[in-house]
Amino acid sequence: MKSAEIRQRFVKFFESKGHEIVPSASLVPYNDPSLLWINAGMAPLKKFFDGSEIPKNPRITNSQKCIRTNDIENVGKTARHHTMFEMLGNFSIGDYFKKEVIPWAWEFLTEELKFDKDRFYVTIHTEDDDAFEIWTNVVGIPADRICRTEEDNFWDIGEGPCGPCSEIFYDRNPEMGKDDVFHPDNHNGERYLEVWNLVFTQFNHNADGSYTELPKKNIDTGAGLERLCSLLQNGETNFDTDLFLPIIEETARLSGKQYHTDLNLDVAFKVIADHIRTVTFSVGDGALPSNEGRGYVIRRLLRRAVRYGKVLGIEKPFMYTLVKIVGDIMGEYYPEIVTKREFIERVIKAEEERFHVTLADGESLLADVLERVKGEGKNVLPGEEAFRLYDTYGFPIDLTEDICVEQGIEIDREGFEKALNEQRQRARAARKDVSTMSVQTELYDELDIRSNFVGYSEAATSAQVLA
Ligand code: ATP
Ligand code: MG
Ligand code: MG
Ligand code: MG
């Protein structure tokens, strides 16, 4: 079943249960300073959940584009995470509650999509006996397929509606650890794939951090379209589906490398396919690369993708040429990425060209430094020098490392990390002084902290680096 059909079937299924189908909102939150990006299907519907607006129909369904920067490092590593994905959702604004939504989710999965009933497991909140009762007695799931957990089963994204949840998992590989007792974290979350989260919204998380019972209880659900696709198309990962393969195939053509021949190259293919979607959609929704907030996310994703392009041997701007493919795949449901295609391409191309200049400048600076080091009869590049290239010129440390290795020079990694940490402390302290936008502070912290993996740590800590 193709992705477009799954998306369509979902919203049509809930339309048949009295829901109004609403189009995806922009990725850029409207009137919501608490969020950097729309990160869940309910985010643009908060106004209904908190009662500040009354919807025409209290039952709503959508397929919402979402961005989650906290999943950047997971992309290409796990089978199931993207920076941008589509969340299929059904919502009840003070209308139906648990006893309707649980059986409907089950009906959609097992009757509409015809998944094997015996491969599902669910989690519920430790204290949620109502949910347990509905899953076992109404739906008929054996009690030993239900796991009560505390941490992951309370949906709370900060200010706004929140409450206990019940998550639905599909066993991708019953052969794996046959005697396992189900727990969502087993096998790093890769055996039991979380496909759908049902949130029983009964509280409001207030600005001062307190929680109050909502006058009317709500339902908010989210199912990952890409994950359903991977299951229905027998893809090993979300990337092995009609949503991503055409992008990967084009990247393979451009690079002359093949997908599924080398694990490292596969990560590169996946990251590129992921990031081009995020950048295409976010620029399509009016965000632009910059050194702050949303723009910084776009800039960082593009630069990451360019670096992964280099892993595949692509040395020229290429990301912008993939915008068309993204449009071919998803433009029918999201016409904005087709009508704005030329603009999106132009923005991406300019940004890619700029980064290539940064890289070229960095390379020549590094050549000078190495010349000097060798002239002094040494074979270690001082950590501060590596850091200066990284911090002042935006030159990625792993590139410095590659070049040094080629020339038989070592990097003083300890010195580099020390300088990096000092810079982070300074940046954090500075942000604490001037920050009025907590979301942004968090974002920088997140990007700083998470930039430390397999060397792709180009997330520059100081904004001017990226100018
Ligand atoms: P996971 O535990 O796998 O990271 P989650 O619990 O963070 O997922 P939710 O916040 O419950 O996810 O979001 C609802 C649904 O959206 C998930 O059940 C999943 O199907 C999908 N989803 C969440 N994050 C991502 C992502 N980064 N990429 C793709 N799909 C996602
Ligand atoms: Mg998650
Ligand atoms: Mg989860
Ligand atoms: Mg979840």
TrEMBL record:
Native organism: Tumebacillus flagellatus
The Alanyl-transfer RNA synthetases family profile domain, residue ranges: 1-467
One of the GO biological process terms: alanyl-tRNA aminoacylation
UniProt similarity note: Belongs to the class-II aminoacyl-tRNA synthetase family.
Residues of the full protein shown: 1 to 467 of 875
Name of the protein this chain belongs to: Alanine--tRNA ligase
Keywords from the named record: Aminoacyl-tRNA synthetase, ATP-binding, Coiled coil, Cytoplasm, Ligase, Metal-binding, Nucleotide-binding, Protein biosynthesis, RNA-binding, tRNA-binding, Zinc
An example molecular function term from Gene Ontology annotations: zinc ion binding
Main function: Catalyzes the attachment of alanine to tRNA(Ala) in a two-step reaction: alanine is first activated by ATP to form Ala-AMP and then transferred to the acceptor end of tRNA(Ala). Also edits incorrectly charged Ser-tRNA(Ala) and Gly-tRNA(Ala) via its editing domain.
Source organism phylogeny: Bacteria, Bacillati, Bacillota, Bacilli, Bacillales
